[in-house]
């Protein structure tokens, strides 16, 4: 029983940490590293408000889901 309660407690703490989200610049640099590791050279990453019209593909969400990171080739 104690192990179950401990597991539930740890999951709830982890859930709050994930809900807080990463800062946009940190996530943007992680995404850029992955894109460059795949050989892409000419691209842009832009942080926009969630739901804003953006020219490109949404590749990430940051700051507790309030902003999106948009990828565009060229």
Structural summary, described in words:
The protein has helices at 2-20, 24-37; strands at 43-49, 57-62, 67-73. The chain has 74 residues and is an alpha+beta fold. It has one domain (22-73). A 3-stranded antiparallel beta sheet has the order 1-3-2, with helices on one face. A hairpin with a 4-residue loop joins β2 and β3. The protein is flat. The model is unreliable at 2-19 (pLDDT under 50).
Keywords:
three-stranded antiparallel β-sheet; 45% helix; 74 residues; alpha+beta; DUF1161; disordered N terminus
The arrangement of helices and strands along the chain is HHEEE
> Structural class from helices and strands?
alpha+beta
Strand tally, please? 3
What is the share of helical residues? 40-55%
- Please state the overall shape, judged from the principal axes of the Cα atoms: flat
The end-to-end span amounts to 56 Å
Low confidence ranges: 2-19
Task: Describe the secondary-structure layout.
Blueprint: H1 2-20, H2 24-37, E1 43-49, E2 57-62, E3 67-73
Antiparallel strand pairs: 1-3, 2-3
Summarize the structure.
It comes from Pseudomonas versuta. With 74 residues, the chain is α+β, with helices and mostly antiparallel strands.
